[in-house]
Design goal:
The protein is mostly beta strands and 218 residues long. Strand 7 and strand 8 form a beta hairpin.
Length: 218
């Protein structure tokens, strides 16, 4: 995955520069890896099936050097940056867990919310489950620990788009969170972000936020 990202990131950041001139892309960051030691990603619960996933191997599950910014409205960034990962089930299922490559960048409360939304014209729409607050996120620039959010089972329909959303409260504890959602390379893929004035859907020319959606089938 790292070999792919070397060429991929050189192309993607050119795309980001062009997109930034239109004011449309979320904030992307490239930084040096903080630790060459990779902790294997958690195992999937044996009782749950994979409804959606894009992770690599356990010790190279995502790029820890490339990520989207996720930040609360009171964070050091001075602006809200929420992020949504779409998934479309291939069969009818019930979602009960999300594992995601979210990390803490050392500022604000070390916690972030994960939720599941329906789709509204290519962006998150109706809240279906959550928010679930996850705490003690791993440090940005490391691999491959995932954050885990457990939900009361929520029904999803084959061929219908849904969203996993990472966000924070508007105020209070967690609203100052500043962190990241690490990438896997997957160009021309739908994603969505919000800076405080509604969700914006767009086709990424860079990468997809890394994670898995787990549950039961049927």
């Amino acid at each position: 995955m790292k070999n792919v990202l070397i060429l991929f990131c050189s192309v993607s950041f050119c795309s980001l520069i062009l997109l930034a001139q239109t004011g449309k892309p979320p904030r992307a960051v490239h930084a040096a890896e903080k630790s060459p030691i990779h902790v294997p990603a958690q195992d999937e619960p044996t009782a749950l099936a994979k409804i959606y996933g894009n992770l690599g191997s356990k010790t190279d599950a995502y790029s820890d050097e490339n990520w989207w910014v996720v930040a609360g409205p009171n964070s050091q960034s001075g602006q809200q940056h929420f992020f949504g990962l779409p998934f479309t089930p291939k069969v009818n299922a019930h979602v009960s867990q999300v594992q995601a490559a979210l990390q803490y960048n050392g500022s604000g409360a070390n916690q972030v919310n994960l939720s599941i939304y329906g789709d509204n014209a290519g962006a998150p729409g109706t809240l279906l489950a959550g928010p679930v607050t996850v705490t003690n996120l791993p440090e940005s620039g490391t691999c491959c620990t995932l954050v885990v959010a457990n939900f009361s089972p929520v029904s999803v329909i084959e061929g219908t788009r849904y969203w996993v959303v990472a966000d924070t409260p508007a105020s209070g504890t967690g609203s100052d969170f500043y962190g990241t959602w690490d990438w896997v390379p997957k160009p021309l893929y739908p994603q969505a972000y919000s800076t405080g004035s509604g969700w914006i859907g767009y086709n990424s020319t860079n990468a997809e936020a890394a994670g898995e959606v787990l549950g039961t089938i049927p």
